[in-house]
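NUDIX hydrolase, Corallococcus praedator. Tokens?
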Amino acid sequence: MSDGGAWRGDIKARLYERVRERGFGSLIAFAEARPAVPLYVLADELGNDVAAVQILSGLMYEAEQRKQVTRLVRDVLVRELAERFPNGWPDVLDDATRGEVAMGLGSWFAYTPVTHRARVDRAGDALLANPPPAGWRPLGPDDELLRTLLPDEEA
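Tokens:
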């Protein structure tokens, strides 16, 4: 991707062609088959000319069409946490792990559409104020704790 290939040509057509080649009818179906896999890994699976932000953009478009944006927002958090904490939520929130949690939550907020940012901000605050049990590792957007923090209420 360092040659800028991800930004050449018809990006949308390339994404959907790659997804169909793998037997999926949508980016959401492709992503759902790989729960808790970081977005950059999904992009790498589709080729060195695909960027994670392109995956996110396509997923957001599909989620908006399906009225499942909140579910996608939870999914993005799952992928962020899996990348930062592959063994689950840290045992102790010391300065280092609190910094990693804050970075993950900050990325999650940045990837969230404006319509959902206030809710994501509150959910992130709740996670920091009342951390989940050590080792908690949500495996998808339907995780019970995540649904409690960010219930399905489409904007």
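Residues 5-66 form one domain.
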